[in-house]
Amino acid sequence: MSFARSAGNPSLLLSILVLVGLRLVPGWEASAVISRDSRAAGEPTKDCTAPLRVMTFNLRYSAAADGNDRWELRREQLVETIRSSAPDILGTQECLAGQAEFLREALPDYEFVGVGREDGRLGGEMCAIFYRRSLLVKLDAGHFWLSETPQVPGSKTGTAPCRAWSPG
Predict the structure, then answer these.
(1) pLDDT for position 40
(2) Which fold has domain 2-36+51-165?
């Protein structure tokens, strides 16, 4: 996915291939704030050289039987964590359609890009991306599957699980 800052130099393109690509490394499930600066949460940036706040978060799919850690009991804390970190770009892993919809409603300052890996719409997990609409403008978007037929939703190679990538 490519973005341009909504204020300042429109030729500045940002690629978050690394952000989404982190999910492709086997066993990588870490959540981290990659860059921080002194802006208050939600404060717009007019300086295109200011660092971007980028965060990735493994949501843990909501169908998991996690007892006291189940989605319904942790989702408000998740939103509080995201708001307090105030990322400009948020990448998610193991995000299901219902979780994406919840985050879209809870984070109205963010735009959303993502599709389910099973059908290219809402089916299955997605690596959804949320970005601050007051700061970034989406220039391009797309999704592909890590298979012999990358444009076919739900496609996979051999017996490997279905893997999708949403670089934008």
Answers:
(1) 54
(2) Deoxyribonuclease I; Chain A (3.60.10)
Mean pLDDT by 10 residues, the chain (168 residues): 44 33 32 37 59 90 80 94 96 94 97 90 90 86 81 82 72
Residue 66: the pLDDT is: 83
**CA dist., res. 149 & res. 161, Å (int):** 14
Per-domain residue ranges of the chain? 2-36+51-165
User: Which of 8, 19, 11 is CA-nearest to residue 90?
Assistant: 19
CA distance 117 to 128: 11
Of 111, 102, 56, which is closest to residue 76 (Cα–Cα)?
Answer: 102
Q: Quick one: pLDDT at residue 151?
A: 84
pTM of the model: 0.70
Structure letter (DSSP) for residue 68: G
Q: Using the 8-state DSSP alphabet, how is residue 115 labeled?
A: -
Question: What burial letters (b/e) apply to 33-56, b meaning 16+ CB within 10 Å?
Answer: ebeeeeeeeeeebeeeebebbbbb
DSSP H or E stretch at residue 98: helix 97-106
